[in-house]
Design brief:
With about 325 residues, the protein is an all-alpha fold. Helices cover about 70% and strands about 0% of the residues. The protein has 16 helices and no strands. α3 crosses α7 (about 120-130), α5 (about 65-90) runs parallel beside α8 and α10 (about 185-205) runs antiparallel to α14 (about 240-260). The longest helix has 23 residues, at about 155-180.
Length: about 325
């Protein structure tokens, strides 16, 4: 079965899947003893507020889950958001931020939570309740640490390694909350995480450049006659449009090969994951609608556009299922 699976995978996927299996087979946190239920409840409220403040799309999609899974998903989001915020700060040197990430790793994954550390209390409760493997959380923190310093990626394969660390790990942890039928779901979760992060990267090119980061593969830029200087100028010309068309076409194929894995999730979580994926994929439509300009504006879907798409997403994710991509047939 594994040999057949590997035969249908792109070369860049194979090491990522090995890391996913490593995470899946690692131990989960035991349920903490002696926690104050009221403090844990307050922690879930704090996590929900973090999600509402930072991501309307995630808040909308997670709200489609049953209440207990919704709370856990928002605790996962708050853990990831806190991790990301440490790396995104520009007020400390690299070594200081690495030390802070290490302290956060210990606080979030190993040390007993303080009675008033509400976010961590909720995250610990969610980890234990849904048997989230600790190694996946460690892989996330390791991936986020790559954001420190001067970020550059020569090839698409290098970039997907980064995407696994900061995004596929999140999807694999979310998969434990939603529920999945068997390990066959892993490559789909890995692909979807990479697709979501690549969407972020295309949307945030201008913002990232202003922060001193460039996530676009340098080899891909060179293929279309572009350099870092062109990104710095933020000029949308025919070269840039062709480059972005290449990126978006590849990304849509990746979404198409990831979405069929939703059938392997628990039935009451399929709509939420389908919504998260398709609404994020919709950002690509908005980039195209604005002539591939990702320098002067941040692509997004309005609340009205998201709500209009939900009935079709529900039908696809919950009733008929997503068709398998050619690579999976």
């Amino acid at each position: 079965m594994q040999a057949m699976e590997n035969a249908t995978m792109a070369a860049w996927e194979q090491p990522l899947l090995e890391w996913a299996r490593e995470g899946l087979n690692s131990p989960a946190l035991e349920r903490p003893l002696g926690q104050d239920p009221l403090a844990v409840e307050r922690g879930y409220m704090v996590c929900a507020e973090v999600a509402r403040h930072h991501s309307r799309t995630f808040t909308l999609a997670s709200g489609l889950l049953p209440n207990s899974k919704c709370r856990a998903a928002r605790a996962l989001y708050a853990f990831c958001r806190t991790t990301d915020d440490i790396a995104d700060r520009s007020d400390g040197d690299e070594q200081a931020l690495l030390a802070e990430l290490h302290a956060w790793r210990n606080r979030a994954l190993y040390a007993p939570a303080a009675a008033d550390d509400y976010l961590v209390l909720a995250w610990a409760d969610a980890q234990a309740a849904y048997h989230i493997p600790r190694r996946l959380a460690e892989q996330l923190i390791d991936g986020v640490a790559r954001d420190l310093g001067r970020v550059r990626f020569q090839t698409f394969e290098e970039l997907t390694t980064y995407c696994y660390g900061v995004a596929s790990t999140v999807g694999l942890m979310a998969m434990h909350i939603v529920g999945f039928s068997r390990a066959e779901a892993l490559p789909y979760a890995v692909r979807l995480g990479v697709a979501l992060q690549l969407t972020n990267i295309l949307r945030d090119v201008g913002e990232d450049w202003r922060e001193g980061r460039l996530y676009l593969p340098l080899d891909d830029l060179a293929q279309f006659g572009l350099t870092e200087a062109d990104v710095a100028q933020g000029h949308v010309d025919d070269r840039w449009r062709r480059f972005m068309r290449f990126q978006i076409d590849r990304l849509r194929r990746l979404y198409a090969s990831a979405l069929p894995g939703i059938r392997l999730l628990h039935r009451n979580g399929r709509f939420a994951i389908g919504a998260a994926a398709e609404l994020y994929c919709g950002i690509l439509d908005d980039i195209e609608a604005h002539d591939m300009d990702v320098f002067g504006r941040r692509a997004s879907l309005s609340t009205r556009e998201k709500l209009m798409r939900l009935p079709g997403i529900w039908w696809q994710a919950s009733v008929v299922g997503y068709p398998k991509a050619m690579r999976d047939r």
